[in-house]
Amino acid sequence: MIGYWKRFxxxxxxxxxxxxxxxxxxxxxxxxxxxxxxxGFVLTVIAVVAAQLYRDASAAVSAGLIEALxxxxxxxxxxxxxLSEINxxxxxxxxxxxxxxxxxxxxxxFVIARLALAPxxxxxxxxxxxxxxxxxxxxxxxxxxxxxxxxxxxDPTIADEVRGLHKSTVEELDRISEIINNLLSLSASIRPERxxxxxxxxxxxxxxxxxxxxxxxxxxxxxxxxRTSERRIVWANPTAMEQIVMNIIKNSILYTPRDGRILxxxxxxxxxxxxxxxxxxxxxxxxxxxxxxxxxxxxADPSRNKRKGGGGGLGLTIVxxxxxxxxxxxxxxxxxxxxxxxxxxxxxxxxxxxxxxSKEKLHDTVSEITADFSHGNARRDT
Length: 382
Hints:
Blueprint: H1 2-21, H2 23-68, H3 75-153, H4 160-188, E1 198-201, H5 202-212, H6 214-219, E2 223-228, E3 233-236, H7 238-254, E4 261-268, E5 273-280, H8 287-290, H9 315-325, E6 329-335, E7 339-347, E8 367-372
Helix pairs in contact: 1-2, 2-3, 3-4, 4-9, 5-7, 7-9
C-alpha cells in the first residue's frame, strides 16, 4: 500500500513539474480543462432550458385545463390556445438557449485558440530575438576579421596566391555580412511598431542603391537604365525602403548575364500608389519555381550557387515581409528566356495623394506571382 502511494505521489510530482516547465503540455491540459468546462456549461444550459420549458408547458396545460372546465369554454379553442402557447414558449426558450450557447462557444473558441497558439507565438518571438541577438554579436568579430584581411591585402610583398585567398576571404565575409543584415531585417519585421513612416523620396534611395552596386554591374558590363517620374514620394520607412530596393536590384544584377540590360523605373500608378519596377534580360524563372521564390533559402536554379555570386537565399523573403509592413504589393513576372520583372506597389506619400497612371500588361505567356498586402491579403496568379 505504501509503495502504491509513493508511485502515485511520484506521478503527481512529475505531472506538476511538467505542467510548470513544459508550455506545450501546459497548453494541452488547459485546453482539455476548458473543453470539459465548456461541455459542462452546455449540459447545464440544456438542463436549465429543459426544466424551464417543462415548467412553462405545465403551467400552460394547467391554465388550459382550468379554462376548459368553465361552462362556456370550447375544448377545441382551449386546446388550440394551449398548443399555440406551448409552441411560443418552445421557440422563445430554444432561441435564448441557442444564443447563449453560440456566444459562449465563440468566447471559449477564442480563449482556446489563444491558449493553443501562445507557445508557438512565444517560441517564434524567442527565436527571432535569439537570431537578432546572435546576428548583432557576430557583426563585431566579422568586421575585425575583414579589416585585418584588407590591411594585409595592402601589403605589396605578399604572394599572388595568398592575395587571392585573402580576396576570397573578404568576398565570403561580405556574403556573411549580407546574410546577417537580412537576418536582422527578418527579425525586425515582426515588430512593425518599431518602424517609423514618413514621406520618402524613392528616387534618392534608388540613386544611392545604384551607386553602391555600380562596381558589381560594371564587372558584368551591364547596361542599367533608370527612369524616374517627378512623382516618386512614398509613405515608408527609409531603412526598409533601402533594403527593398537594394535586394531587388542586386538580385537582378546577380542573375543577369554579362552584357545584359536592366531597366529600373519609378512612376505613379493607380490612385495614390507609386510603383518601383526592375526589369532584366536574364534567363527568367520557371513557372514551377515561381511560387516558391518568397520562401527562405529557396533557389529556383540549383546552378545559382555561391561561385556565381548568389546571395543567402533571404533577399526576396525580406522584401516580401517589408512590403507587407508597408501595406503594398509585390509582383514577379517571368518567362524563361525572356527575363524577369519585379514590381513593388507602395502607398504614395502624403504630399502626392491623387496621382494616377495606367500600366501596360505583359503577354499571357508570362508567368506571374503576386503577393498583395494592400488589404491584408496575399494572391498568387499565373
